[in-house]
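Look over this record as teaching material.
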Amino acid sequence: TQTGVSNLFNIKCDYDEEYIATFEVKAGAEYRITLGSAGGHPIAYTLEISYDPISDIDSSATSSASNWAVDEINASVAAGLKTTKMMDNNYDDYATREEFAELVMKLYDELGGSILSDGQNPFTDTSNSEIIRAQNAGIINGVSTTSFGPNQNLTREQLCVMILRALDASGTSYNSNINFQKTYSDQNEISSWALNSVKVLNSYEIINGSGEGLDPKGTVTKEVAILMLYRAYNKFN
């Protein structure tokens, strides 16, 4: 069952001679394949299904992105830092915690993080395998012991924490003995659990201030979140 997207599935079934079928899967529909036997005799089948909903992302997918973001969004896609939800052509929408958690796992993978199985799911409000993977890698925490808050808007300080933890989990080195670019008017508004992450990413110019402030609890549009993550990849890859 595939929801939220439409795409092509390619099916390869081998028995005596190769047979390949291609059909389009519509969002929200369910498709079943039934394999039987010929003339009552048992038959061995090999069934291969390939699916990549973001393989065809190209420059047309950035038509709604701001001009200043297009080049880095395309570079992010080319680097493998892409997900369907983040690259859905609504770049001025605010990124959710779920959407960015999926994307930060692409960063973790591209930086050489070890392959993780889903592991145990402590959350009651999501069964997203990438969120569970991120939790088991130590990259994300919930908003409570049992809730992740997947549909809550991502904040700038949460983004910093996820990126820095992805660096840590993948064994990526960085200088943590550094400070903010300058004194910001709202530094005291940064949560204690996010302070080091914001400081490190600010010092590496991955998150910059807006005027005199960092706006740590402000929301983040998808295009800004993509750019920050791609810049982290560029700095530390």
